[in-house]
Amino acid sequence: MKAIVCNEFAPVSQLTLQDMPDPKASRGKVVVDVAAAGVNFPDSLLVQGLYQMKPDLPFIPGSEIAGTISEIGEGVPHLKVGQKVIGLCMLGGYAEKVVLPASHVIPLPDGIPLDEASALVTAHATAHHALKQRADLSSTDTLLVTGAAGGTGLAAVQIGKLMGATVIAVCSTDEKCQVAKDNGADICINYTGIDLKAAIKEHTKGKGVDVVYECVGGDMFHICSRSMAWNGRLLVIGFAGGEIPKFPVNLSLVKGFSVVGVFWGSFTQHQPQDFMANMKELLTWYVQGKIKVIVDERFALADAVDAINKVTDRKVKGKVVITL
Length: 324
Description:
Blueprint: E1 2-5, E2 16-19, E3 29-39, H1 41-47, E4 64-72, E5 84-88, E6 97-101, E7 105-107, H2 114-118, H3 121-134, E8 142-146, H4 151-162, E9 166-171, H5 174-182, E10 187-190, H6 196-203, E11 209-214, H7 218-225, E12 228-236, H8 249-255, E13 258-261, H9 264-270, H10 272-287, E14 295-300, H11 304-312, E15 319-323
Parallel strand pairs: 8-9, 8-11, 9-10, 11-12, 12-13, 14-15
Antiparallel strand pairs: 1-2, 3-4, 3-6, 3-15, 4-5, 5-7
């Protein structure tokens, strides 16, 4: 099979398209012929050796896929060859085939295209877990989303609005603001050239924000930490801006808010029943048309480097997908 391979921790440009052995389905596992793979910001960190997890070399990046089951190992009675599925693979997604534990494969309902399905897991599932389990978001809350036109930010806008919150999107351009508004944001702030802290204060009538979905880091995190309401929850999603901020803990004490870490990958392992319940709810919402994956651009497998770079350069409005 063809696959994108990381042979050493290095810049994304060093990834290579090469032939790899076809995977086999051992007991409890299935092989999926990949139709599409979602591209995510951590993919870039992973191949550079900058992520929390450092895989053994060589490895194939790619954490979420959609496709068709082509082989089933023993002890998997609930799945069948030819079935369309979503797969959570952590590694191996940028390839023509991937082997997965049956527990990490979810049958795909009719009506969800495979390219959209491949981009549903990480972004929407992260946002769903963050707002539901970590923030306990309610209809009386104001939710502020940074990086709101990106994959996971846009998912948070959609889900936050679906959960009844007042959603403030923060974006770097008017074009991105329009995307966020089209996906449910009540207010969008283009932070370029303005005092963002003052704008947040104005839009919240001085109260501050109940929940922040923060995926940029750096100065953005510091502004958000100074814009929290009493009993607020500042969700730490990621650091797409490249800088991991240092947090002055006294701010949390004085302003009475919580800083809450969100690591969806660990959630799936520590709370598998909650993860599966979340996925069932997400897929139901999708079929009902209440949420939607916005695919910005589709790339061929051979162009995976360009796909990852588009995400890391923060030029994406929605999700980037590799199609096979």
